[in-house]
Amino acid sequence: MLLCKLIVKELASDDKLEDIFFIHYFQIFMTEGTHYTMTNGGSINSSTHLLDLLDEPIPGVGTYDDFHTIDWVREKCKDRERHRRINSKKKESAWEMTKSLYDAWSGWLVVTLTGLASGALAGLIDIAADWMTDLKEGICLSALWFNHEQCCWGSNETTFEERDKCPQWKTWAELIIGQAEGPGSYIMNYIMYIFWALSFAFLAVSLVKVFAPYACGSGIPEIKTILSGFIIRGYLGKWTLMIKTITLVLAVASGLSLGKEGPLVHVACCCGNIFSYLFPKYSTNEAKKREVLSAASAAGVSVAFGAPIGGVLFSLEEVSYYFPLKTLWRSFFAALVAAFVLRSINPFGNSRLVLFYVEYHTPWYLFELLPFILLGVFGGLWGAFFIRANIAWCRRRKSTKFGKYPVLEVIIVAAITAVIAFPNPYTRLNTSELIKELFTDCGPLESSSLCDYRNDMNASKIVDDIPDRPAGTGVYSAIWQLCLALIFKIIMTVFTFGIKVPSGLFIPSMAIGAIAGRIVGIAVEQLAYYHHDWFIFKEWCEVGADCITPGLYAMVGAAACLGGVTRMTVSLVVIVFELTGGLEYIVPLMAAVMTSKWVGDAFGREGIYEAHIRLNGYPFLDAKEEFTHTTLAADVMRPRRSDPPLAVLTQDNMTVEDIENLINETSYNGFPVIMSKESQRLVGFALRRDLTIAIESARKKQEGIVGSSRVCFAQHTPSLPAESPRPLKLRSILDMSPFTVTDHTPMEIVVDIFRKLGLRQCLVTHNGRLLGIITKKDILRHMAQTANQDPASIMFN
Fold first, then answer.
1. Which one, 10, 446, 665, 673, has least CB within 10 Å?
2. How does residue 195 score in pLDDT terms, banded at 50, 70 and 90?
3. Residue 568, SS3?
4. What is the pLDDT of residue 155?
5. Helix residue spans in 423-470 (DSSP H)
6. Average pLDDT over all residues of the chain
7. Residue 20: CA atoms inside 13 Å, Cβ hemisphere, count?
8. Is the model's pLDDT at 457 over the cut of 90?
9. How far is CA 359 from the centre of its chain?
10. Going by DSSP bridges, is the β-strand pair 740-742/728-729 parallel, antiparallel, or unpaired?
11. Residue 605 gets which letter from DSSP?
């Protein structure tokens, strides 16, 4: 009871969790090896040392099965004991001191390697995706490894109006039928575009299906679940890393409405997981390994957006479950190293970390807050619509025969996307290129249709800040095409996110917001030009002034739509701020992002990643979700009145055969240990996996252990008759201080304990007598039930 009060008292302070861990498990690791006494014919007492984990560790004890949750408390205490052991030996010799220094620096080494690998892979993916995207339209004859832009860099035959055309670059129509213009050329390029798109999509989904099924999707919902303590073997393995890297390039190049930024977080976490196995400090401790994965996710966002600080905040705000201060420093360092490597590779040839880096020089004005907030409203509405529509489609995919044919689904989606995208120049563009064009301000050197304004003939020289001008026919044509592109992107993104290829959501959401923002920006610009005498424009928008920047509206719209889908706030603003490099646009970004979050929350508080976690039935307790119901622990614990009695072990009255039968007849992950069936006084808790491994190990290493051997969890083995087989002592695998609550404890406190200490289970007692057990899944089922959802959906699917 004292321990329980201590936990409840300290729940408000996350900084003290390590001390709670230490107090809770201190007595387990200070337990000494003991001896048992057998009575032999009533004459001689012999003392024999039994198998004890503290003297002879059993391989496998303390590890976890696939699709199980780790015990954060036990893992933390294991690390404390390991650290104490290293410190006690480091003064014995120079070798031990070297081992101690290696252990102390291993955390920095593993995040350095993770950052190096993440930056290198991101650069490789960017270069390969750009080349394969341009391969759909043509090929560079002078150097096959050049994309379209690189092919024309060295040409002296390009013109200002047609800077993307050069003799070295040949379209497929020129190569196959020898025509550069005309209907035949258009049709041939159309056919080749669809052919390459389907080829890339088919190859991507085939590789995922055959070699690494875990390589599909964004990966962020699963990473959030893994960081909360869930085990998914192979999700961060070497095969997943290899196939995800290859298929991510193919999926982006196929032209599907997806991005590579989300999957880059998965790629970085795979790197962090693989490198953690090089260091015993992390390879043998699941909780410590998750500190590396938190740093890796920061490195992933750092290379995805060129935003190291935004990456750290993303890891803290969006994906991490346990984020101590040292993890913050290492996340920052990993993000720094990854960004440095990517900058050294310079994949886009613009000395920037991303393709769509922009800088604005025009200030924003107070009246512009109104359209910025309207863009935030649009972002919130888009986010709410997308989450509901995408989850409904994914649920239908799971429950119908359509989900059994993932290759066919990808081919159909890719075919529809390619057929509709080619005629529209804005949907034919790579999505990152589209965002770049929408973000870019119209300068004197821009030749895009979006910059086709009617120029003032009286202008004597070219200046950087061109005044607002009336829109030309090119701008109106571009707006019409952008409206069609907006509808196309909204519909196709709903059906694309969740198919069995690597698919991120950041870039499609930003593209939708950027399209809407650019349209709004042009509308406000023209309104200010033609009605500059209105009272809202009169003070700021004089005739000949550069008043409105449509590219800024595109940037704000992109942030609003991404915030509406993911419900990110602080990290999103910092990411977009690092993209633009302008401090003065933080207020418009904050206004739009907060508005999109408020509007989205009005329709449902879940972001897209939380919605997919719930759809897949992952055991994830969201720290952002509040528990407001007045139920008690007794209302949630098992067994219920209609259930069979709780499966328990007694302290010294069961045989090896009894325990093996109990394990075979039940599927529980652990069993409470009590003094006797009559008293029901709690002694501790034993995990199913540890029991199985310990019994198997004892039968191999100890003579005389048979099915009728008495199993003892007590400190001293009771006296046994001489003809009795040798007893088996398993006290060392027993958790002698499991977390307990009384049956009258409010569930909001129980939920807080589970969230902040990462518990797997909690035992319920009444005056020291065991009544039942509450597991993490019991809490999730109860929360689903109180929210009028199906409690049976809380299972790994």
1. 665
2. very high
3. coil
4. 66
5. 425-428, 431-439
6. 84
7. 25
8. no
9. 30
10. unpaired
11. S
Calculate ∠ Cα 502-506-507, nearest 5°.
90
Average pLDDT over residues 187-216: 94
Average pLDDT of the residues in 556-577: 93
CA dist., res. 638 & res. 764, Å (int):
9
- How far is it, in rounded angstroms, from Cα 80 to Cα 287? 12
Look up residue 446 and give its amino acid.
E
The angle at the Cα of 477, spanning 471 to 482, to the nearest 5 degrees, equals 105
- In angstroms, the CA 511 to CA 533 distance is 34
Looking up tokens 């959030």 gives: 224
Assess whether pLDDT exceeds 90 at residue 2: no
| pLDDT reading at 449 higher than 90 | no
- The order of strands in the sheet holding 740-742 is 740-742, 761-766, 769-775
Q: Which two tokens mark 412?
A: 């159909």
For the chain, the residue count is 797
Closest CA to 54 of 86, 74, 32: 32
What are 739-776's pLDDT values in tens digits?
Answer: 999 999 999 999 999 988 888 899 999 988 999 999 98
Residues 6+ positions from 145 with CB-CB distance below 8 Å: 131
Distance CA 223, CA 232 (A): 10
For residue 352, the model assigns a pLDDT of 74
Beta strand pairing call for 670-674 and 649-650: parallel
Hey, is 530 helix, strand or coil?
helix
User: What is the side-by-side order of every strand in the sheet holding 649-650?
Assistant: 649-650, 670-674, 682-687
More confident residue, 293 or 628: 293
Query: Given CA atoms 203, 205, 208, 211 in this order, what sign does their dihedral have?
Result: negative
Residue 554 dihedral angles phi and psi, to the nearest 5°: -60, -40
The CA distance from 597 to 258, in Å, is 22
Residues paired with residue 504 on neighbouring β-strands, in sequence order: 259
Where is 771: in which H helix or E strand? strand 769-775
